[in-house]
Amino acid sequence: MIIRSPSLLAMMLLLAVPAVVPRAASGQLASIRGRVTETGRAAPLPGASVVLREEGGARRGTLTGARGEFLLTRLRPGQYFLTVSFVGFGTRTDTLELGFDEVVVFDVSLTEAAEVLSEVVVEETRVVEGRSTAGLEVVMPSALARVPMPDVSYDLAGYLLTLPGFVSTGDRGGQLYVRGGTSTQNLVLVDGIPIFQPFHIIGFYSAFPADIISFADVYAGGFGARYGGRISSVVDITTANGSKERTEGAVSFAPFVSGLRFSIPVEKGKVSLTGSIRESVIEQIAPDLLGQELPYRFGDRFLKLHAFLNQTSSLSLTGLRTFDEGNLGTTDEERPSSWKNDAFGFRYTFLPDTDAVLSQFAMHYSRMESAYQPAPNVQQVADVDAFTMEILIAYLMGKSRVHVGLFGNLNRFHYDLGPGSRSVSTGITSGGAYVDTQFEISPSFRLEPGVRYEAFSRGVRGSLAPRIRALMLPFGPGSRQQWSVAWGRYHQQIVGLNNEQDVSDVFTVWAPAPRNSPVPKATHVILGVQQRLWRWMELSLEGYWKGLENLAFPVFDDIPNKVLGFSRVDGTARGFDARIEVNRRRFYAQVGYTLSEVEYRWTDPGRAVIDGVASIGAGDSPAFNPPHDRPHQLNTTVQYALGQTSLTARWQYGSGLPFTQIRGFHQALSVDPQNPGALLGDVGTTKVSRGVPYGARLPAYHRLDISVDHKFVRHRSVTTLQAGLINAYDRANIFQYNFFSGERVNQLPLVPSIGLSVELR
């Protein structure tokens, strides 16, 4: 691969030199996460105070969220005293010894006190640990158990779809759209490794099971300068380090997926190995269980080695492999569609004893291979891989921090859309630097300015992207109300292409933006308010606007699957998200609603771009709603717990998505090569006649899922039995329409499930 930009080459060479750079400190210093519940009932206690005191007397604290969860990050190694208290309950204090780069899981149960206690006031409530701020949702593993699954385990994918602004085409296909962005405009990271296809072919499942996740930072927009390469959203997953003291594990059996997880102390106190294996079984069980075929096979493999090299440094190696095969209803073959991910990462971290300066070096490799067969004898393939390097340093200055970063990326692409198109292989490079800061102006006000610069190959100009986030507690550290804002500029050189003749985006081609053209970019504006109405009820409201520019949009010929080139579109995504959570001792409910609109506009309606040359028609309509525009979306989740038994129900509704209607097919007459003005009598190429691009909408999507589970808790083990129904009233939601055969393919039917898991701890 040739690097054509001298400045970019120099920047890549700098990656071999120690430099100053930062990253999210939450994954580098020690962290404590946990959940506060009521003894005997396991009911969460939202609003409980969690105070952490160092040996020297310095304190920091937070309040538990609506699910009783808390998270304290960026803790230097040493001894701490953790005190948890709640009105009407006894106080608990524990001593914790934190190691370098360690994530401690500490769940607390409080016993109801005989006497009524006066209200506990936390003198210092750290704004840093806010659960939801300006597009950011900090997701803890305990939250995933709120979503019914056809499985005894839980998964991040199911939880994300309960968040306002997150849209999926349904329970098949593995695509996720966030606040007007496409699935290829989302950045999904697992321990810093980018994952191109983060969801399985069955949309309930992500490529990483819930029990390997320590926590996830989910940005629906407005993310900071340390993230780049995407213009819509970020899902940054930090996986748990295995236990270095004792062997732990879990095994689960269910109709959709069965799995195994283990954690082994390779060298006690120093080195741990964590692994996870999941494999689908629905393909074998479906004919007997459902009376119909579900020809899908998928699974994933995860392995992580984490080691303390000495008192000041640590090393982690992460590997992930996923695979999906299935028939999406396009042919009569058994499994004509497939994709797989391979991802590997290395991270070395150094924290000196005397200075609050953290250094890190990381390398990542990620690859996705996909194949799709829309019709007999029509095979489409698309492969993409990425190599990234980072040198990072974080300056920790009390309650503030300054991160500086240097990075480089290499991407390669190969795709072939079958008959009528040519195979394409190409590559791009990019590199740059960023500064990402966080300043605690006061206990009630936090400011996070940052800037990112990135240079691109292929004759594309570099980009400068300033960003800022702010959070304010208007009535002091103990305020029940929280205001947050975010603004930023974002750029993305690689794009995802879909065929407008597909009702659902089941096949995506990754490719570079057109040569010598401006890269796609976006501007985010977010304003949010979070109000705790009562101790057990919380209301969140967010308005957002995204301005989209220079998006590369494919232009298809009237020959099926033939891409003529790319046109450019600009667009806007605007909306309003509302969510209310109720969390009593036995009862939990969440209702989320999104009102939104996504609109694209052809920047030059009569022209498209092929290899940098503008030449051909792009469309007749100056504005249209793209296929992921869902104006109304509603999600309702309810859970009732009685002792160790929980009953959970979820109902979701989404208005119909746009698609392009196929009017029919015709056989074109051949042209006489000797006389271009004359037609021959022989039948020529088959051509397709389409309606107005995305001028029609699918029927509304809605579904009810129900599950019940019971836990048998022992000293070293937890056994869980689960039973449930997916699509309880058997709604026939459309998934795909095969325009070659005229066959409609629906989403999953009513699916009963029963599962068993055993966890050793």
Detailed description of the structure:
With 761 residues, the protein is mostly beta strands. The two termini are 49 Å apart. Among the domains are: 105 residues, Immunoglobulins (Immunoglobulin-like); 103 residues, Beta Complex (Ferric Hydroxamate Uptake Protein, Chain A, domain 1), CATH 2.170.130.10; 57 residues, no CATH class. It is built from four helices and 49 strands. The radius of gyration is 26 Å and the shape is globular. The longest helix has 8 residues.
Assigned CATH superfamily of the domain at 25-129: Immunoglobulins
CATH architecture descriptor of the domain at 25-129? Sandwich
CATH topology of the domain at 25-129: Immunoglobulin-like
pLDDT averaged residue by residue: 80
Task: Give the overall form.
Answer: globular
Q: What gyration radius follows from the Cα positions, in whole Å? A: 26 Å
Oligomer: single chain
Helix tally? 4
- Biggest sheet layout: 22 strands, antiparallel, barrel
Low-confidence residue ranges: 1-27, 115-130, 606-620
CATH class category of the domain at 25-129: Mainly Beta
Report the sheet-strand fraction.
over 45%
What percent of residues adopt helix (DSSP H or I)? under 10%
Distance between the termini: 49 Å
The total of beta strands comes to 49
What structural class should be given to the helix and strand makeup? mainly beta
